[in-house]
Amino acid sequence: MLIEWNDSLSVGNDKIDHDHQVLIDILNGLDDAVNAEHGKEFISGILSELSDYVVYHFEREEQLMRRHHYPDSAAHVQQHCELISGLDALVYEFESSPNTVTADTLIFLKHWLIDHVKGCDMRLGGFLRRNHDCS
After folding, report:
1. What is the mean pLDDT of residues 76-86?
2. Is residue 114 part of a domain?
3. Which of 63, 65, 90, 113 could form a cystine bridge with 73, CB 3.0-4.6 A?
4. Which CATH number is 98's domain given?
5. Which residues, including other chains, have CB under 8 Å from residue 31's CB and lie 6 or more apart?
6. Per-residue confidence band for 79, with pLDDT thresholds at 50, 70 and 90
């Protein structure tokens, strides 16, 4: 298992936490597929699912930020853009050369998610809790 959900990853917002759990499940599925040496088509499907869910999740967070006038939204959205660009580059690279999803790539994705959750998302979760909105 690449990442195990635990309370240290909870930002205190049920929807955001659920999304993070789904992202962890997808990354763990990608890890399993790479380790089992599944074919390009199978791994491509997981990468597509990851990309789609990342976009969905970021849109949900950005809606919360707009609705609650989150003061750090510009920096948070910028990080979202950078993360999506990096993930898009990974998917493009994989489509060009199927051997690009390696153990190092999986470790990068793990740290990418955990660093974002424990950084930007924790600050957003705290802001939402202080404003009494955990939805």
Report:
1. 94
2. yes
3. 65
4. 1.20.120.50
5. 1, 2, 106
6. very high
Mean predicted lDDT score pLDDT of the chain: 92
Please state, in angstroms and as integers, the Cα–Cα distance from residue 29 to each residue in 14, 43, 68, 120, 125, following that order: 22, 9, 34, 25, 26
Give the number of other CB atoms < 10 A from CB of residue 108.
13
Question: Cα-flanking dihedrals φ and ψ of residue 66, to 5°?
Answer: -65, -45
Q: Which residues contact 80 (CB under 8 A, 6 or more apart)?
A: 58, 61, 62
pTM recorded for the entire structure: 0.92
Mean pLDDT on 85-103: 84
C-alpha–C-alpha distance, residues 128 and 132, integer Å: 6
Number of domains in the chain: 1
Domain interval for residue 97: 7-130
Residue 2 maps to a domain: no
Instruction: State yes or no: pLDDT of 31 exceeds 60.
Output: yes
